[in-house]
């Protein structure tokens, strides 16, 4: 189980997350929605230990193991994975060598790397010649997102946080990415997912066990998949004064 308990997170001296709690059990898919700037990426980054974010209180537990004091690589080795909202371009490091290096680091052996890579490329409809290109360098938005899911497929973590991995994709790429995630879930039913998204259509591909709505650094509501529909119709927030229509949040 991945447990977040009363997590408070600061960035640049500002308190962004205010006592956020949620727990994801093995095999569960949770959807996290909320207006831009509500703190979704802050939660994702804090979970993996991005040093720009300071945990000012609360706990993160992965199968009871406290993570807050651990470096990102240790968290990854324990089975946590983050697909970035904005994947970084790294010139001079090929995709293949990046993937192979991380794979060996995580699995302590390069066994089956090539076989798994070929399977994952096929699953995500990625051309093998991408492996010779520099990591994310000059990739289109959609290619960057596919590259994140390729890592997810290869590294087989216990829990994956996907930060708007379905944003900015054309219809075909959205389908490939969403079907890719759903296929991974089938081959590894124990995989827990926290999917940050603005896109209700993702539910066509993924069964959501729990949906959370974040607003101004807090989870203001959690529920089942019906909550997505509610947000689509009524917008975010409980009261009219807090009402922010979904459509205005789709951009960016
Ligand atoms: P979301 O992913 O939900 O769109 P973020 O987690 O990216 O939201 O941002 C949450 C809040 O943190 C925003 O209000 C943003 O302006 C603020 N923020 C981001 N970077 C910094 C920073 N360096 N210093 C202070 N506040 C920041
Ligand atoms: Mg974000």
Automatic annotation (TrEMBL):
Superkingdom of source: Bacteria
Gene coding for it: sufC
SUPFAM superfamilies, per database record: P-loop containing nucleoside triphosphate hydrolases
InterPro entries: AAA+_ATPase, ABC_transporter-like_ATP-bd, FeS-cluster_ATPase_SufC, P-loop_NTPase
Matching Gene3D superfamilies: P-loop containing nucleotide triphosphate hydrolases
Keyword Nucleotide-binding belongs to the record: yes
Family: Belongs to the ABC transporter superfamily. Ycf16 family.
Protein name (Swiss-Prot/TrEMBL): Fe-S cluster assembly ATPase SufC
ABC transporter domain residues: 2-241
Keyword Oxidoreductase: no
Keywords: ATP-binding, Nucleotide-binding
Pfam families according to UniProt: ABC_tran (PF00005)
Molecular function GO terms recorded: ATP binding; ATP hydrolysis activity
